[in-house]
Amino acid sequence: MSKKRHSLLVRLVLTVIISFGLIPVVNAQASATPFSRSRWPRAQVTYVIQAPSYQRNVYLAAIRAWNATGQFRFVQGSNAHHQVILTTSTSTTGQFYRLSGITFQTGYHNGYYTQSRVLLLTRNLSNFRYSYTDQVHVAEHELGHSMGLQHSRDRHSVMLNNNRYNGISSADIAAVRLRYRLAVGRL
Ligand SMILES: [Zn+2]
User: Fold this and answer.
1) For 140, which of 62, 91, 96, 119 could close a Cys bridge (C-beta 3.0–4.6 Å)?
2) In this structure, which topology does domain 31-179 adopt according to CATH?
């Protein structure tokens, strides 16, 4: 109820701004997916998966989905040579409390990412009854973070906070495309 009133208020405010023509306002229903000032040196990284076979397949499905966008490539590396580690944890407490997945950017050089670590939190995923498809969406979201995407308020974005049901949207693809056409440090 209060949420509905809030969005009505937002819409009224937007209408007023547009009618005065003060600033260009993007449609709030399809807002751009935000991204970090940091990025990888290229729109391509090597990865290694260290996970049970179920989550390995989840990660591979998410990688296929991002690679199919044509804007970024995850390429298989090795245990010795990789930039991104895709792994799992059974922890449910501390920083993992009620999270389905988490991404750590673990290395930087001159503003560029050099190392990233992605975790699917398998016990939380099963406790909250995430289906295989739900888990692929979580992996797509975390891979989005590993590329430099941030949380979106667009209800269709894969980067929605706590995303479970959204796949990769056209706004998400556009954000990756723009992120890797802009220099590091630029938004
Ligand atoms: Zn997130």
Assistant:
1) 62
2) Collagenase (Catalytic Domain) (3.40.390)
